[in-house]
Every structure is written in structure tokens, then in C-alpha cells.
Amino acid sequence: IDLNDPTTDPFEVARHAAGVIAERTGADRHDIALVLGSGWREAGELIGETLATVDHADVPGFHAGAVAGHSGTMRSIAIGDTGRRALVYGTRTHVYEGRGVRPVVHAVRTAHAAGCTTVVLTNGCGGLNPAWEPGTPVLIRDHLNLSGLSPIEGADFVDLTDLYTPRLRQVAREVDPSLDEGVYVQFRGPQYETPAEVRMAKILGGDLVGMSTSLEAIAARQVGLDVLGISLVTNLAAGISDRPLSHEEVLEAGQAAAGRCARLLAGIVGR
Ligand SMILES: Nc1nc2[nH]c(I)nc2c(=O)[nH]1
């Protein structure tokens, strides 16, 4: 299937994908989906027992293309003894991969088609607040979509009030009262922001800069999913600190925070 073929209905592909997931996991419904970004990979382990894994390559609309650090398998996880199931994706598609916007939000649409009512979107990002050391998770309160793109096609004027569900943010803060909140700014990427762009984002009211998440959140709202967004600050955004960004620093900050992030997600999902 070519998701980007105009004659393809992306929601139909999501329904097919959900059918394959149900068949391969033995679960005709999943309750919560998790998209794991940089630094969040290990979270699945603490959520519960992995009952099944499915290769992304086997699911319609997903691509096998392994992105560094991502696994190409999604996992069906029993959430403690709640009887609920989590669908944890092994990889995420970014706009900058040039596959179009539909693949970027396909995981969210598939989660909805699989019966989920909630999606947790995590990412690694740059921080504009020097108080947030690399390795600090921050709840997303709202976003500025500077990508210039949208997953919504046609005259569907979706309201985005409370897009990042207040009830879920409250649950997250009950699990970890030290969590701060911030406004996430999505740039298209793949280049990092210039110091001037970081200053612009700050003037516009942004606290976090990244290259994902906002389009997925919009697509989630379009199908009525509750959304919890959590960013992991892996670096201070360009110009905030006097040192240039290094991808190595980003990766190691993600590794260091892995335990706290995994415990946070497991605590939230288990509620
Ligand atoms: N746009 C943007 N995306 C990021 N992802 C990560 I990890 N760090 C950054 C960053 O500083 N800026």
C-alpha cells in the first residue's frame, strides 16, 4: 500500500493495520498506545509483560526502515493485572524522512482503529529553560506547530482546545509531582534551530523545541483520542548554552534518563 497515493484512504489502511495487529497479538482491542521517542525506548519493559511482538514491516502502512536506536517491532503489553493492553510502537516516522505526513500519523490512526482511547506521545527535544538539565522529562501543556504542515485533509475544522488532556497531565503529576509543563514547538527539521530561531520560539512562548509530536497530537484529536505528551530534554536548545549541539550528548542524556522515564511511563499507564 502506498499511504501517500491520493486514491488511498489512510483511515482504511489504519483499519487494515489494526486488523493485522489484532490477529498477530490475539487481542481484538488495545486500550492505550505509546509512541516512544529518543530516550524513552526502555519504557515498555516496566509497563508489564510483553504478550506479543509484531514487526512493523508486517503491518500495512508501517515501514521497516530502522531508524537509529529504534526497533522495528511493536509490542502488545499487559498493563499489570488491570486486564488492559498497551500497544507500544517500536519506531516513529518523522516529517523530515520525506515520506509525507500520512506515515507520520499512521501509528496514531492505527491505535484508534485498534480500539485505543489514549495515546502517549513521547519525544526527545531541546530545552529553552536552563533549569531543565539534559535528562529532564517535561509534560507538554500545549504546542506551536511551526512545521507548516497538518495531517488533516479537507475542510475538517478540528478544535484543539485542551489538546493535551488535562486529566492525563494531572495523573502524570500525581505520579511525579516534580514534573514541569511546557509549550512544545515543532520545527520540520532535520536541522536543529539556529540561535535566532530558538530566540523566536522563546518569544512566541515556547519552552521546548523538537521535530515530532504536534502533528501526531492533531491526528489523535481528529479521531477523538485523549493525548498525553511528554518531552525529554536531552539538550539545551541552540544558543541557550554557549556550547554547540552534539548528537552524542543527545543520545547519552537519553540513556541516562532511561530509568526515570521508564518508571514515569509505567506509573502513568498503570493508573
Ligand atoms: N528541533 C529540535 N529537535 C531536537 N530533538 C532533540 I533529541 N533535540 C532537539 C533540538 O534541540 N531541536
List descriptors.
271 residues; alpha/beta; 5-stranded mixed β-barrel; 9 strands; binds 8-iodo-guanine
How would you describe this protein?
This protein is α/β, with parallel strands linked by helices and 271 residues long. Helices cover 31% and strands 24% of the residues. The chain is built from 7 helices and 9 strands. It has a 5-stranded mixed β-barrel, surrounded by 4 helices. Helix 3 (102-113) packs across helix 6 (214-222). It is globular and about 50 Å long. It binds 8-iodo-guanine. 8-iodo-guanine binds next to strand 5, strand 8 and strand 9.
Per-chain topology:
Layout: H1 10-25, E1 32-35, H2 43-47, E2 48-55, E3 73-79, E4 85-89, H3 102-113, E5 118-127, E6 136-145, H4 166-175, E7 180-186, H5 195-203, E8 208-210, H6 214-222, E9 226-236, H7 247-269
Parallel strand pairs: 1-4, 1-5, 5-9, 6-7, 7-8
Antiparallel strand pairs: 2-3, 3-4, 5-8, 6-9
Helix pairs in contact: 1-3, 3-6, 4-7
Bound molecules: 8-iodo-guanine.
Radius of gyration: 17 Å
Main sheet: strands, sense, barrel: 5 strands, mixed, barrel
The tally of strands reads 9
What is the CA–CA distance across the termini? 37 Å
Strand order of the largest sheet: 5-8-7-6-9
Q: List segments where confidence is low: pLDDT < 50 over at least 5 consecutive residues.
A: none
- Which strand-content bin applies to the residues? 15-25%
Q: Based on Cα principal axes, name the global outline.
A: globular
Q: Name the ligand types.
A: 8-iodo-guanine
Along the chain, the helix and strand elements come as: HEHEEEHEEHEHEHEH
Task: Output mean pLDDT.
Answer: 93
Please bin the fraction of helical residues: 25-40%
Which structural class do you get from the secondary structure elements? alpha/beta
**Helical stretch count?**
7
